[in-house]
Amino acid sequence: MASLDVESVRAFVAIADLQSFTRAAEALGATQGAISVKLRRLEERIGQRLIERTPRHVRLSAHGAVFLDRARDFLAAHDAALSALASATPRRFVLGIAAHVAGPELPALLAQLNAHDPGLRIEVRLENSRTLLDAFDRGELDACIIRREDDRRDGEVLSPEHFGWFASPNFEHRQGEPLRLAALSPSCGVRDIATRALDEAGIAWTEVFLGGGSSAVAAAVSAGLAVAIFSCRLAPPGAIEIGERLRLPRLPSSEIVLHSTLTDLKSRAALRTLAAAFREHRARSGSR
Fold first, then answer.
1. DSSP code of 227?
2. Over the stretch 161-189, which tens digit does the pLDDT of each residue have?
């Protein structure tokens, strides 16, 4: 009976989950070529094609679909056996995620991270990007996912971030009056983008709603009280982009970056899984 190579099975599961050889390689910290070789060896070992690959799509074959759950069980048993031998206390992983970056996919991302390494004790902190970056620099966070701040060029780029002016369809702006603006807090970098753009365009504005978190700002926008700047992907349901209608200035794009100080191999592997999953969710949401 053929025996299974753990890393080849792990490569197969990553390809199946992420539907991409490239993203699977990122998640496992390997090259795309190495991932392809591992999959080919696994298929040769069991004598069945597991993945169907075309120039546009990566999908499970019929045999791959049957094998996938068993492959997960195999990896879980392997990892559980190793974990049982480990005498170290659970590793603590403090992750900061910017409030304007975290989207509806956040629970799925954290669940995927936990499934990858159950021995990792995950603690999550939601704040604005500037606050999280300061905390990271002070050593209070192991990693953070934030909007790039100012001219700081370090960090791993996860995706671009595009902003827009959003308001309720029934929002009314009276000519000659300052634009009513809702924002997160005075220290929020996204707020700075909005106010700087308005000042440079010579448009008067006033803050009628400040602070309370992103959900509170979204509520103010949905109620028709004010305009707010949002990532185009995370605008409140029902809100519309009104920049062109009100002749508001174009907003500069930014980038979502990952900062990390993790050095041990297991934690780095977990972080690669998180980064790959984040890119995958962003790619899917961008295609809708």
1. B
2. 888 999 999 898 888 899 998 876 666 67
> What's the CA gap between 270 and 121, in Å, rounded?
12
Residue 216's pLDDT band (boundaries 50, 70, 90)? confident
Residue 10 identity (one-letter amino acid)? R
Please state, in angstroms and rounded to a whole number, the distance separating the CA atoms of residues 70 and 205: 59
Q: First and final CA of the chain: distance in angstroms?
A: 45
Q: How far is CA 6 from the centre of its chain?
A: 28
If asked whether residues 230 and 266 sit together in one domain, one would say no
pLDDT at 287 over 50: no
Of 62, 85, 108, the one marking the end of a domain is: 85
**Longest CA span, the chain:** 81
Q: In this structure, what CATH number is given to the domain that contains residue 142?
A: 3.40.190.10
Q: Kindly report the length of the chain.
A: 288
Query: Are 139 and 115 in contact, with CB atoms under 8 Å apart?
Result: no
Over residues 72-118, the pLDDT tens digits come to 999 888 887 776 655 455 677 888 988 777 766 777 777 777 777 77
What residues contact 65, with CB distance under 8 A and at least 6 apart?
A: none
pLDDT digits (tens, 9 = 90+) for 103-113: 667 777 777 77
- Domain termination site, one of 85, 109, 137: 85
Query: Cα–Cα distance between 121 and 91 in angstroms, integer?
Result: 6
Instruction: Return the amino acid letter for 137.
Output: D
Q: Which helix (H) or strand (E) holds 164?
A: strand 163-167
pTM of model > 0.90: no
Please state, in angstroms and as integers, the Cα–Cα distance from residue 44 to each residue in 38, 41, 50, 54, following that order.
10, 5, 10, 19
